[in-house]
Design brief:
Layout: H1 27-36, E1 40-44, H2 48-56, E2 61-64, H3 68-71, H4 83-99, E3 105-109, H5 119-132, E4 136-138, H6 145-154, E5 159-164, H7 170-173, H8 183-199, E6 203-207, H9 211-220, E7 225-229, E8 237-240, H10 242-245, H11 267-280, H12 286-289
Parallel strand pairs: 1-2, 1-8, 2-3, 3-4, 4-5, 5-6, 6-7, 7-8
Helix pairs in contact: 2-4, 4-5, 5-6, 6-8, 8-9
Length: 291
């Protein structure tokens, strides 16, 4: 769909020719936000239009997640998503962000099998997404990914790590389950988080991790901002899948989801409400959205 005459069912967008009203998000700005305790907002998006709306609504970071395999392609997990598919969607999101404000920081997910073989393979895969318009890549996993993270960072590729429920490992984890519930598993998550910070990761997604543990990890990582999803209110930022937070999905909403479309009037209004709620700490609510 083409946005014309500043009108869209997704919410009013500024005209393409207007100057950006906000400064582009950069790695130093993310560090500054984290240092002063300002919450970082993140939303997944997979196409140009939704990316443009998210950018105009003030979302700082857009994750082009491999969750598109389930959301857009109808797959049963993220395992079937290819690097070429991710490249296509990163390019689309990049065009959408440039279409409006051009301020959001774009993160491209490295899909299953694209970084597991070697550090060199990870670099080649990351280069594909960076050349497509990503500013950062995301990879899943604990200790074994620290060397890969360091290898990428040393070569100028910013890295977002991902611990807790790591969907690419869902079969090994036995399903979509809360991680870090035992003393041993919580200690391992903390060790992995510290190792990833030491390796140079700038952001760390914590998915379905008990709120108390995610708060402890957040306090322990002054140089790496935690981004929670089902991990409580005390992380440095929050992320939701776009379709989940708009109440449009193919199944039952997870416990950590809030439908921001209810009463918002437009998709942009819903995204702006999400940004406000994350910034003021009213979302998530530990008793409702975390473990």
């Amino acid at each position: 769909m083409t946005v014309q005459n500043n009108a869209s069912p997704y919410g009013t967008l500024p005209p393409a020719s207007s100057p950006a009203t906000r400064k582009p998000v950069s790695l130093p700005r993310l560090h500054e936000m984290h240092a002063r305790g300002e919450k970082i907002t993140m939303i997944t998006a997979y196409d140009a239009t939704f990316a443009a709306v998210a950018d105009a609504a003030g979302v700082e970071t857009i994750l082009v997640g491999d969750s598109l395999g389930m959301v857009c392609q109808g797959l049963s997990s993220t395992v079937g998503v290819t690097l070429e598919t991710m490249r296509y969607h990163v390019e689309s999101v990049h065009r959408g962000v440039q279409r409006v404000q051009g301020t959001a920081w774009i993160i491209g997910d490295l899909p299953y099998g694209s970084y597991h073989e070697s550090k060199e393979q990870a670099f080649r895969s990351a280069a594909v997404l960076m050349q497509a318009g990503a500013h950062m890549v995301k990879l899943e996993g604990g200790g074994w990914t620290a060397d890969t993270t360091r290898f990428l960072v040393e070569r100028g590729i910013p890295v977002c790590a991902h611990l807790g429920l790591t969907p690419q490992s869902v079969h090994a984890l036995g399903g979509y389950r809360v991680q870090g519930k035992t003393e041993a598993s919580a200690a391992q998550l903390m060790r992995d988080a510290m190792a990833l910070q030491d390796a140079g990761a700038t952001l760390l997604v914590l998915e379905m991790v008990p709120a108390a543990l995610s708060a402890e990890i957040t306090r322990a990582l002054p140089q790496c901002a935690t981004i929670g999803i089902g991990a409580g209110v005390d992380t440095a930022g929050q992320v939701l899948v776009l379709h989940d937070m708009l109440g449009v999905n193919l199944g039952k909403n997870a416990k950590f989801v809030r439908n921001f479309m209810a009463g918002a009037g437009s998709v942009r209004g819903a995204m702006e409400a999400y940004v406000r709620a994350v910034k003021d700490g009213s979302f998530p609510v530990n008793a409702e959205h975390a473990w």
